[in-house]
Design goal:
The chain is an alpha+beta fold and about 150 residues long. It has a single domain, classed as Hotdog Thioesterase (Thiol Ester Dehydrase, Chain A), CATH 3.10.129.10. About 30% of the residues lie in helices and about 35% in strands. The protein is built from five helices and six strands, in the order H-H-H-E-E-H-E-E-H-E-E. The chain has a six-stranded antiparallel β-sheet. Helix 1 runs antiparallel to helix 2. The radius of gyration is 15 Å and the shape is globular. The mean pLDDT is about 95. InterPro entries: DUF4442, HotDog_dom_sf. This is Thioesterase.
């Protein structure tokens, strides 16, 4: 079976390919589908999705709910991890530390970023995550902690 990253590279080269990949990605991890995520980018050390400001993602004040934002952050991290995890290894999330910094009153661009050094420090890998409004304001920022180990 092709890797998630190989599938992304193949599909993203096609018209509507990212949309197709996004549908497959949320089918593999159905909870991500609940936030109606849109996959923007996937490559080693970077993942990016958009969480839309829509009624199903809103809280009582009409902004993107904090948990929908965290859902987007975890999806971005998952894309990054699938593209970055060394061959013969697996990754599992261990925890998430986030701070809510501002109202999320537009679509959110959720990004996850690492570097080579953070993956060489394993088995603990810290992934920096951030959700940004359309005006560039960071609304959620934090770290997702991964456990990266050899496959058995």
């Amino acid at each position: 079976m092709p890797s998630t990253y190989a599938m992304y590279r193949k599909l993203s080269a096609l018209p509507k390919g990212r949309t197709i990949f996004g549908a497959l990605f949320t089918r593999a991890a159905p909870y991500f589908g609940s936030a109606h995520l849109r996959v923007v980018d996937m490559r080693p050390h970077h993942g990016e999705v958009v969480v839309p400001l829509r009624r199903s993602n809103q809280n009582h004040i009409g902004t993107v709910h904090a948990i929908a934002a965290c859902n987007g952050l975890e999806a971005a991290m998952g894309l990054l991890a699938e593209a970055t995890c060394p061959p013969g290894h697996r990754w599992l999330p261990k925890g998430m530390d986030v701070k809510y910094l501002a109202k999320s009153d537009s679509d959110l661009v959720c990004t996850a970023d690492t570097d080579e050094e953070s993956w060489s420090q394993g088995p603990d890998v810290a992934v920096a995550v951030r959700a940004t409004r359309a005006d560039g304001t960071v609304t959620v920022e934090g770290t997702i902690h991964l456990w990266v180990t050899p496959r058995k």
